[in-house]
Every structure is written in C-alpha cells, then in structure tokens.
Fold:
Amino acid sequence: MARHRSPSRTGRPREARVDEAITSATRELLAEAGHHGLTMDAVARRAGIGKAAIYRRYATKQEMVLAAAVEGTVPATPDTGSLLGDLTVLAETVVARLSHPAASNGLLGLLGELGTDAALAGRFAELLIEPERAGDELVLRRAVDRGELAAMPDVELFHAVFGGAVLSWIFVSRLDPADLPARLARFTCAALRAER
Amino acid sequence: MARHRSPSRTGRPREARVDEAITSATRELLAEAGHHGLTMDAVARRAGIGKAAIYRRYATKQEMVLAAAVEGTVPATPDTGSLLGDLTVLAETVVARLSHPAASNGLLGLLGELGTDAALAGRFAELLIEPERAGDELVLRRAVDRGELAAMPDVELFHAVFGGAVLSWIFVSRLDPADLPARLARFTCAALRAER
Amino acid sequence: MARHRSPSRTGRPREARVDEAITSATRELLAEAGHHGLTMDAVARRAGIGKAAIYRRYATKQEMVLAAAVEGTVPATPDTGSLLGDLTVLAETVVARLSHPAASNGLLGLLGELGTDAALAGRFAELLIEPERAGDELVLRRAVDRGELAAMPDVELFHAVFGGAVLSWIFVSRLDPADLPARLARFTCAALRAER
Amino acid sequence: MARHRSPSRTGRPREARVDEAITSATRELLAEAGHHGLTMDAVARRAGIGKAAIYRRYATKQEMVLAAAVEGTVPATPDTGSLLGDLTVLAETVVARLSHPAASNGLLGLLGELGTDAALAGRFAELLIEPERAGDELVLRRAVDRGELAAMPDVELFHAVFGGAVLSWIFVSRLDPADLPARLARFTCAALRAER
DNA sequence: CATTAATCGAGACGGTACGTCTTGTCTTGCA
DNA sequence: TGCAAGACAAGACGTACCGTCTCGATTAATG
Structure:
C-alpha cells in the first residue's frame, strides 16, 4: 500500500506494531459498528495510538479503510479440473470475502465515495478490481485450454456478472448466501458454454 | 413514503410545495456535489425551507435520500415480443437509472449504511428491491408464456445477476455502460435458455 | 395591559377563559421551570390553547411575561401611623412579591432584555417602576405630614435603595429574606431621618 | 475560572491565545448586540476559533459569559481617609462597572438563570458577590478603625443596599447614573452613622 | 558516546454537519 | 371573527467528526 508519506531513512523507524494495531482496530470497528462507528478517534483509541500515527501512514480515512478492508483480500483460484468446479470455488471465495462484516462494511462505505473521489477510485481499482479481473481471466483461460470453452469470453462482462451477482445478493437483496455459489456457478457456466 | 411522523388530521396541512422542494433540492445537490455535499442545511437552504420541515417528514438523512433518489424509480418493462428484446430494454432501463448522478450518488451512499441499519434496509428492499424483482418476474413469465423458456427460472438469482452486473460495471469497475445492455442481455439470455 | 392588537368590534368576541389560561400557564411554568422552561409552545400546551391565541393578545413573549408576572402586582401600602411601620410593611410587601417564583423568574428574565429592547423597557417602567415609585412617594409624604421628616426626601434614590436592596438580597446574594424587612426598614429610616 | 474539563497534563497544551480570543469576542458581542446577539457561533467566528475550543473550556454559554463579563471585575477600594470619600469611590466603581455594556448585558442575562441553576448561582456568588462583600467589609472596617463608626455595621445589609441601589437605578429605573455616587454615598453614610 | 531526526501517545485546534429546539407567522376546519 | 392544532422559515444549541498541529518523551542511526 502506498503510504501517505513514505518513511524517511533517518530518525526513529516506524513501529510495525503500530501498523498492525491500526489495521486490527479498523477491522474490529468496522465489524462491530459498521461504517458509521468507524471514526479516526475510535481507531486511535482502540489501537492505543495517537491520531498522528495514522495520518503519518494514510492521507485519509478512506485510504486507511482501503488498506485494512480491501488490500490483499483476493486469493488465487485453485485449478479444480473443470470450469464448473473453478467457478464454484471462485463464487465461494467471493461470498466468503463479502460475508465478513469488516470487509463488507469497509467496501460498501468506500463505494459511496468512489463517485466523487477519482483518486480513491483509482486506488480501489488497483487493489481490488484488477486482481479480481486477473483471477477471472486465469479461470476462463484454463477452461479454454481445457477445451471447455470454444473461445475466450468477455472477461469484463464475466467479472461484472459474477462479482455483481454476489454483491447484489448479499447487500442489495440481503439474502442468505449459503447455496449461492452452486447456483451462480451453474448459471454462469451455462451462459459461457452457450456463447458460440 | 412512510413519514417520520404521519401528518395529523387537524391543524395546518403539510404543503406539497415543501415536499417537492425537498426532493428537488436533494436530487440537485446529490447530482452536483455527491453524497459528501449533501448536507441537511444545504438542502434546506436550496429548498428555501427550514430544517424542521425536513425532519417533520423524514426521521433521518437516509430516509430523505431514499425518498428522493430511490422511491418510484422502477418503471414497468414493455413487452417487445422476445426475451432478448425485453432483457435489452430492461438493461437499458437499469443503466439509465444508475447513470443519473443523483440516483447513483444517493444509492451508493445508502448502500454503506444498510449493513448497520436494519430499518433502512427494510425500507430499501420495499422501495427498490421488491419492485425490481416483480418486474423481473413479469419479464421471465412472459418468456415462459411465449415458449421461449421451458420452465420458470430462478427469479432471485436472475435479479441478482442482472442488477448486480450493472451495479458492478458502473460503480465497481467504473466502465462505460454504452454497449453494456446488449452484451448483458445476450449473456443472460443464453444462460436462461441453457437451463434445462 | 395594552394588547398586541385590540379586539375588533365585529366577529366572535375573545374568550376570557383563554386570557386566564394563558396567564395561569405562564405563571405555573415560570414557577416550575423558570425562565428557561417557559416556551410559547409549552404555555399553549399547558393552557390547552393554540399559539395564535397568545400572539393575538401579546406581540412577544416578553409582553406575555410582563402581563403574567409583573402587571398589577404593586399594592398600596397601608398607613401604620409611623414611618418605620410603613417601611416595614413596604419591605414585607416587596419581599413577598419577589419571593414568589413566578414573579421573580419572570422579572429577572425580563431584566436581561431591557438593555436591548427600549419598547419593553418603557412598558416595564409603566407597569412596575411607576406604581412602585408612586407608592414610595405616598409613604414618604405621609411621614413628612406626620412631622417625622423635615423635608421631602429624594424619592428616586429611596426607591432604588429600597427595591434594589431586596432585589440584591434575594437574587444576587441569595440570602434568606426572613428578617430583611425589619433590618432594611430600620436602616432606611435612619438614613431618611438623618438627612438634614 | 474552573473549567468544563480541566486541561490534562499530557497532550498538546491549551493556547492562551484562544482563551483570550473567546473572552474578547464575548465582551465585544455583548457590548455590540447584547445578550440576544451573543451566540456561540458568533463568538467562535469572531474569535477565529472552533466551537469545540469554547466547549472544551466552558460547559455552558452561561459559564462563558460569567468568565468574560464577571470574573475579576471587582477592584479594591482605595483609602480616601474618610467613610464618605470611600463610599463615593466605591459607588463610582460599581457604577462604572455596571455601565459597561458588556458587563451589564452579561450580568443581567445571567441573573435570569440564577433562579433555576444552582451551580451557576454558586459560581456567581464565588466570582462576584464574595469579592464585593469582602471589599465592603474592608471599607467599613476602616471607618470603625478611624472612629467614624461606633460599631461594625451589618455588612450583608450594607452590601445589598449599596449594590442593589446601583443595580436598580441603572437597570430597573434606567436613570442616568451621573450624580448617583455622591447621592448614594451621602444617603448610606447617614444611615451608617445613625446606627447606634 | 553524543547528536540528530523522525517516531510515539495524547490531545488541542479550526471548521463544519448533525438533529433538536424555539420564536413568531400562517393556514386549515370548526364554532 | 375566534379558536385548537399544527406547519412554516429562520437560526441557535451542544455534540461529534475530520485532518492538522503541538507538546514532551523515545528510539534508532550517524558523527
């Protein structure tokens, strides 16, 4: 994560303990009290640090949330041997990620700011969208290589459909995501195969 | 829209002019300055009313945004004669709706609060999700009746995929939605037809 | 009391019940909650009337308080046969008046506004100061006629000393006024007699 | 002046500049616009500070006014060599103090709240009444020592008479205080001498 | 070892939004 | 017209939050 100001070489070095405390406190507060309960003072108090220590690392609250709730949350999807299997695992991963209160509250809180903060939107794309898209591409490329798909599908559309469906299911419709992965994987798999 | 306190029968009746002014000012400010620039004082000033007139109608800022940016924005989808046609029109409608700055800024701002405000989530479902789902069901029912689909598909999943894809495309990936309706309609249509 | 707008001759006549209810409610609220708890809405609610009925009678809150807490509270001082006796009775009267919570809270609340509201100051003088001064003059004149005083003293100074002492004793120093009348009467009587 | 929350030992210390700015702005606004024009926002704006800086120091608006308009306004009375001289100077001092618009508007505004706010009344007594009473006692003691008075008079009554007379003259009767000091000193001196 | 420079916790700072309250006016329907 | 009820515009109240700054005390690396 790009820092507000990168640490200088001279003087007292930054304490890793503080980095960790900020991230933990942010996650805890997001999980407990949501976007509304996440104040910089509360983070500092919970982390047992001063506010300056936060702003030395992150220029804004959004950057801090980004680092705590979004950064590094996209794992690689393992090769299960079939497209349907891969998609099921992928869906399970996305569901698991968005089901965690800290991640979801952080993510949704950020979404509302993206529209009026281009810099934030860029960082957001870099940390979340790009890794996700790359993972999706890998999964689809494997299916093509296996011969399950005739041609490389529209990755961007696939990403929007797949991620968007989970987002909508959990946050907009607020339904139980228990059997969503299986259903979504089957639905999407059918669409991909049908594309000539 | 359910009010903060429902107007009593006696005394001076509420002025429709004020309702209208609040809604207009909210939409304008959302469009111009986004979620961040939408302050209650600004709404009151722009609407030429007092803040009490707002709080007499809406218990919270979120309720006000809900009424101004979400309520009554879901139109019926006309029958184009084919599933693909219907889905294209439906996608165009959703895209048009989410492309309007007032609606999108309002909607995204609300999304972040839904996780920790059950009452708001209920109102949100009632005003947005339910009408959308009902419209989706109608479109799919027509396709079944036409014989385009063998059985009634999973409406909930369809709604999540369709709406979620647009949401993700526009707000998460932040891509140009120009040719999204056609691509999304074709993709979804294929999946629905493939379902046994 | 001069009204905000004098009642017109035509139409429905004003109800005396309403006048009485306003005055009573004002006095009760002043006594119970002081100047701070006296709001126009509270008076209207307690009196079981509409706010318009109050503003039809009094142009401002201050006028209402003036009418309820100040007007007509200055009784004549009976002739006890001696200056000391008269002064004692006069002091007892003033103490009694200022000891009533409604009157005192009303009076003190008004005092704070007099400095920046000339119209109110005029009404205040007319309703309270003038009657008091006239009463004082009568008492002193009687003492001159009796031969207790050689010449007519400075009535204005006497009024300020006498009323001000009680005011200061009760509200500024916040002492028990039980034996104030006797002490004040003796002190003032001595001063008046000593004046050559 | 006892603060809302006393400053802690750690952290950034409070700035004296801010204390001074609050007091000055309060005095200026009281003088210019009276009790009614003294709003917390106006004080903050005029002082060039945030409202939080005020509430960090004073729990309520009244406390702030107390500190700005009352605290430390009671000077010692110099020894003129005679009781009449001392009393004249004392009266002049009181008149001068109450003639200043900031002090008078602040003081009168507070008087109205004393009846229903015991804590405020206590602070008021501590900051204004006690110093005044102590000053009065000194003046009277000097007169006894000089032999002008046979015995120590009733200080409490004297204080009520002397201060109350000025209060009543200026604020209740609203008369010109130009020759009040001389008249009041002569009147009170006579009474004190006459006491056996 | 002594100096230097950035770190740390704590909390004050200016600015600003929040949701509530109050004042004096206005607008209903009923009497 | 008067009346009870209550909506209206304006704006102050006291609280909370953000991002910056200032204090005294630490803590490495450098001279």
Q: What stands out?
A: Residues 118-146 of chain B form the longest helix (29 residues).
